[in-house]
Amino acid sequence: MTGQGSPVLRAGLIGLGMMGRHHARVLGSLDGVELVAVADAGGDVHGVAGGRPVLADAEQLIAAGIDFCVVAVPTVFHTEVGLQLAAAGVHTLMEKPLAPDVASATVLADTFERAGLVGAVGHIERFNPSLQELRKRLEQGELGEIFQVVTRRQGPFPGRIADVGVVKDLATHDIDSTAWVTRQPYTSISAHTAYRSGREHEDLIAMTGRLGDGTVVNHLVNWLSPMKERVTIVTGEKGCFVADTLTADLTFYANASAATTESWEAMQVFRGVAEGDMVRYAIAKPEPLRTELEAFRDAVLDVNGGRERIVSMRQGLEVVRVAEAALESAAKNTAVGL
């Protein structure tokens, strides 16, 4: 949090759709921040402006005099809006994915770095309490050597998405969070996609990959399920962690010690490992979006380690690179190296 007497940052928001309305709510109550205006060519359809000026575009928002901006417009407009903000010297948090392709994401990352501006990407799952706790416990070695990361992200089609498929809209969450909790980059990816809802973009993907330390990863993502699921399972030599980002719960399933399994030797051989204790951790559950925007505010002010806590545009670029490799793999029916 910013302290008493800290400067108040003038914030702007462009894009007042499903995600933008939540940004408006949090920015409007964020300590050390004044949301001075919002912008959307379609107006304030959700009624979130709170009496603030509703402007038409980024140019008008810049003219209002802002220090930083949150961009929640469709992905296809990210590059244009981002470059306008960078040229005006405005620190920017871009909703994920950073850009629709690697070339555009590279331009944005390079431009903000050259300008000395804070450029961040809204990969909000990094700020989910369950994944933050998971990352901390993995760093402390509580799982031992990591063998595998499996994620499942499925649910019904969101009518708000029209310009990208399930890979860049949803799978980018899992690509970023997996690399982040394990602190490892992707080195290869293999994927299969399907088109089942009559749209031009894919609505299902199954991905298998490998990280820099040899960890095997698997991501199942779709817009075709009536059941909503958001789960990350990390398996290692001491058991497995299960993070549910819908409920922000983290559970540990331990491998049983030898002393507890001697009488069940045959069953242990059959199962591979024996079931041990299960622990569901009691963790604080602040709203991930508020935690994300607090980190971005602190990054702009260069306080409280904010620049280490945000997802940088350079990191966002790597997520887009892995997503494009997955789509290339599916198109060519072959594994793609990274």
From TrEMBL:
Name the UniProt record assigns to this protein: Gfo/Idh/MocA family oxidoreductase
InterPro entries: Gfo/Idh/MocA-like_OxRdtase_N, Gfo/Idh/MocA_Oxidoreductases, GFO_IDH_MocA-like_dom, NAD(P)-bd_dom_sf
Domain GFO/IDH/MocA-like oxidoreductase: from-to ranges: 132-241
Domain Gfo/Idh/MocA-like oxidoreductase N-terminal: 10-123
PANTHER family found in the cross-reference section: BILIVERDIN REDUCTASE A
